[in-house]
Structures are given as structure tokens and as C-alpha cells.
Amino acid sequence: MQKYYAVQAGFVPGVYLTYSECQAQTAGFKGAIFKSFISRDDAEAFAAGKKVAVADEPAKFYAVAVGNPTGIFTDWSEASKSITGIKGPKYKRFGTRAEAVAYIRQYGNREAIEALGEKVVEPVKKVEVEEEPVTIKKFTPIQEVATKKPAEDVLDVWTDGSSLANGTAGSRAGLGVYFGDKDPRNLAERLPGEPQTNQRAELMAMQRALEIAPLEQHVRIHSDSQYSIKCVTEWAVGWKRKNWLTANGEKVKNQDIIRAVLDKIDERNKAGGRTYFQWVKGHATNVGNIAADRLAVRGANLP
């Protein structure tokens, strides 16, 4: 029997014929709303925001917290593929999607949680504690961003990244850079290379913004990614001292782009420009962030 997957809230709302197509529009989208129907008319009505009496919801949800890919599946044959050959997989069946999400939040890593479009709650205690204050000359620490007034004549740029089906095989990532309404410098690009993750796209968007802006210009980058901002303003200090290894002795993820962003900041400093970072709430009311997000989604859909 043909099922119709209706996406009411996602990257591209509409009706899809396969669950994988539906997942590509909802995975990584905060607050995604989607259901499956046996009637196309009901599916189209639901996607349009209308109230539909009966939805053909899956009776089982398979949560894969450790696997390749991670995520929530409604078909065991698909879920089993993601744990085959994985050392120490973590998975469980639930009766509701909410329970499956809670399981991944408990046992999954940051990327597994973000792939669901869920917010990652930072631990109360820091993993590392600096022995003494560190003065960063190459860029403005994030703790100063909110209190230190940038120099005059600052170019404001909004950056964002998007990954369709983030954390799964076949994911497609894109980046968006927004300078202003109808500004010819606005950019929508596919993320080059692998893996096609949201985090890499967020960082690459920052790199491209710094490449486009004139070197002598003071720049303030607005981003909804605390991960990306902290990578280049806080965590990089310790990583550089440890030869780009984490506290567990593992190689820092995405260090190729992180280091490229730091190089661009250093290059701008030498030219007389400064780089500032400002966190903004994503998917809210910030016009620049909304525009950058749309550009990033457009980039993810490019060939």
C-alpha cells in the first residue's frame, strides 16, 4: 500500500512518496512536523496546515543513538542497516517518537542529537579549566562580544549552515552568507568535501564571509552556531597548545576549517581589520539569520 509522507514544518514542506525523502526535509530541522497517510488528499491537507482526523502514524520507533547513520526509524530493516558492523551500537524500540528522541539525547553524541534538530545542552562543568587567564590577541573572545563595543564602521554579516538529513548517509550540506538585501556578495554554496555535516557548513560559511569581506574592514559575524563561535574564540586556544588534540587525545573534528578561519582572522588583523562574533537565536525573528538560513538551504540543494 502506498503511503504519503506529509511535511508540515521542514526545509521544504510538502508531500513525499518515501520516508527517506521525508527525512531529508525534516532531519536537522528544529520543530519538524510530519506524518504519514494512506490518502494523498489527507497528506496534502496536513502539509497545508489543515486539521486531519486520522493519520497513519507508525506504531514503532527505532532509536539508533550509536550507529551509522544515527536517527529514528520506523522500519526495522532500515534501522538494522545502521547498526550492522558498528562496534558497541546503542539502539532501542519505542512506542512514541518522543521516547525515541529522549533515548538519543541520553546516549547519542552531539552530532546524533543535532541531526534530530534538537538543542544540545552544554554540561554545567567545563571539561578543561585553564590554569591562568589567556590573552587572545588574534581574535575577540566570545565572553567579550556582548560587552565590548566594536570599532566604528563595522561590516555586519550573517552566516549559516544547513545539512539535509544531517548525520546520515547521503546527507547534503550547504552554506549561506548574507550581507544585506539584494547585496551581490550574498552567497549560497554547496559544502565542498566530506563529511556533509551541519557543523562543517556553519564553519565554512564563516570562512567564506571572511574571504569575501575586504581585509582592512572590521567585520562582525552573526551566527546561530555557538559551536562554531566557541571553536574559533575559546576552544582553539587549548587545542593549539595540545597540537590540535582533544582532552581524550583524539584529533579535533573539523580542524581544517577551524584553522582556516583562524588564519583569515589573523590575516585581517595584520591588515588593520578586526573580527567580531555575535551569537543570534536561530529560526527566530532575526532577519539576517533567516536570510542566511534560506541561502544555506538553497546551497544544500545545489548539485
UniProtKB/TrEMBL annotation:
Domain (RNase H type-1): give its ranges. Answer: 151-301
Superkingdom to which the source organism belongs: Eukaryota
Q: Which SUPFAM superfamilies match?
A: L9 N-domain-like (SSF55658), Ribonuclease H-like (SSF53098)
Reactions catalysed, semicolon-separated, are: Endonucleolytic cleavage to 5'-phosphomonoester
Cofactor(s) listed in the protein's UniProt record:
Mg(2+)
Presence of keyword Hydrolase: yes
EC number of the protein: 3.1.26.4
**Keyword terms:** Endonuclease, Hydrolase, Magnesium, Metal-binding, Nuclease
* Secreted among keywords: no
Q: Which BP terms in the Gene Ontology apply to this protein? A: DNA replication, removal of RNA primer
The protein's matches in InterPro entries, at most eight in alphabetical order, are given as: Ribosomal_bL9/RNase_H1_N, RNase_H, RNase_H1_euk, RNase_H1_N, RNase_H1_N_sf, RNaseH-like_sf, RNaseH_domain, RNaseH_sf
Q: Tell me, what's a Pfam family for it?
A: Cauli_VI
- Spell out the Gene3D superfamilies in the cross-references: Ribonuclease H-like superfamily/Ribonuclease H, Ribonuclease H1, N-terminal domain
Q: Name one GO molecular function term.
A: nucleic acid binding
Describe the function of this protein: Endonuclease that specifically degrades the RNA of RNA-DNA hybrids.
Q: Which family does it belong to?
A: Belongs to the RNase H family.
Q: What is this protein called?
A: Ribonuclease H
Specify the species.
Answer: Trichoderma harzianum CBS 226.95
